[in-house]
Amino acid sequence: MKNISFKRHRFPPEVICHAVWLYARFTLSFRDVEDLLAQRGLDISYESVRRWFLKFGQPIARNLRSKRPKPSDYWHLDEMVIVIRKKRHWLWRAVDNEGEVLEFLVQSKRNAKAAKRLLRKLLKKQGWAPARMITDKLDRILSPLNRWA
Three-state SS for 93? Predict the structure, then answer.
């Protein structure tokens, strides 16, 4: 976990972190966050919240991700068809057995490259391989990748 420098900012780091967390965690606009902070007696403009999010959003998210507990060693890979702008896309997700989404990928084509890309990205990000990888009838697509099953 890296320390984030809040020097030259008028408000304390707790207020800045809370504003960034509100914006990132819930589907709120910058003005909604401004209203929520105003209810707590803080006079902060939506523009300040926007600047804080642009400056501190990535480091705060990185720190939160590093504190997250290690996922379980049973992973489930699934795919589904979604429609984006009237075009079909394939959503690939890797989920552990506790329901935590580990990684996802949206592709316009359904192919083995997409699954390989998702798994390669996931394994690189996690740094270890699971004890078991469960796939739902994806064997013909993932046959070279099914060494975990």
Answer: strand
